[in-house]
Amino acid sequence: MKDRSRKDAKTPRDVKKAVGVYLVGLCLAGIGSAASVKIPAWAGDQTVAAKDFRASLDGAPLRVLSVRGPKDDLMLLVALDLTGDLALVEPAKEALIAEVEKLPARSYAGLLRAQDGLAVVSDPTADRAATSEGIRSLPVSGKAGLLDTVEGAARIGDAILAKAAVRVALLYVTDSDIHNYREDFTNPVINSSDSHDLSRRFPEGLVQDKITKLEGRLAGMQTPLFIVHLAYRGDRLNEAYQNGLKRLSETTGGSSAFCRSMADIPASIHTVLETIQAHYSVSVELPKKTRRALQIHLSLAGGEGNGLHYRPRLTLSEQAFRKE
Known about the structure:
Blueprint: H1 13-20, E1 36-42, E2 53-57, E3 60-62, E4 64-68, E5 74-81, H2 86-101, E6 107-113, E7 119-125, H3 128-137, H4 146-163, E8 167-174, H5 198-201, H6 205-218, E9 225-229, H7 236-251, E10 256-258, H8 264-277, E11 280-285, E12 293-300, E13 309-310, E14 313-315, H9 318-322
Parallel strand pairs: 5-6, 5-8, 8-9, 9-10
Antiparallel strand pairs: 1-11, 1-13, 2-3, 2-12, 4-11, 6-7, 12-14
Helix pairs in contact: 1-4, 2-3, 2-8, 6-7
């Protein structure tokens, strides 16, 4: 973490606290408390007051502790996982810079590098020039790293959520190819003479197993994950990988976009950044005795048909669940 002796008087106290725990999150096996959870939610084009949110579990009402919306502080963690074609990467960088520079004043962007292990490029800051320079100068090299780093990056987000009164979102911009990971996901044929060998019939088995295990761990985290993939690939293994990335983002309440052409890149980055900025973070108090897998229902005071979209299912981390 870079040593910054100059203090920004305009930085809210909670954001300073969040910056303080930013790297601590890298070392935590799990964060949070079973006493409450934070649920990302979207209300469409309507303006919603915090007092309008309602929550329940198994039909029993839950107390809404706080609601932070589009006008409140946002901590955006941008993770770049870029290893391939500069013809795609450079336009993506410029599109991302353009969107970051348009972020509201109460938004703070931190930059991570995912290739060859998770690394902090720049601390969360409202200094758009510093973030833009970090994005522009990030090298395009190494092995794909999204699957290897997303859990650690989500832990950083959860550490910030636990310590600061801010909304948090994690955005991966990646051109990753499943064949470019250090781990071999090709599921080689075990017995080439056996036509019933399952490794021949299901070559994507290793990818799906990796995704399923990772999905289970991300289900215990509360930071919504968003993914923009710059280069959709149609081979069987990459399709399984890309479908898996979509599952990972949806598990956390986030979303994903897969670009099939150069023109899709700026549009996808713009749409995902708009979605991130529009989200509410709804903190809900849990009952003292609860199960680990939860399905929480959110609604607005106006009733069911109000266009509210949110993450309904989550799993308490083992560490948080043991605290009960």
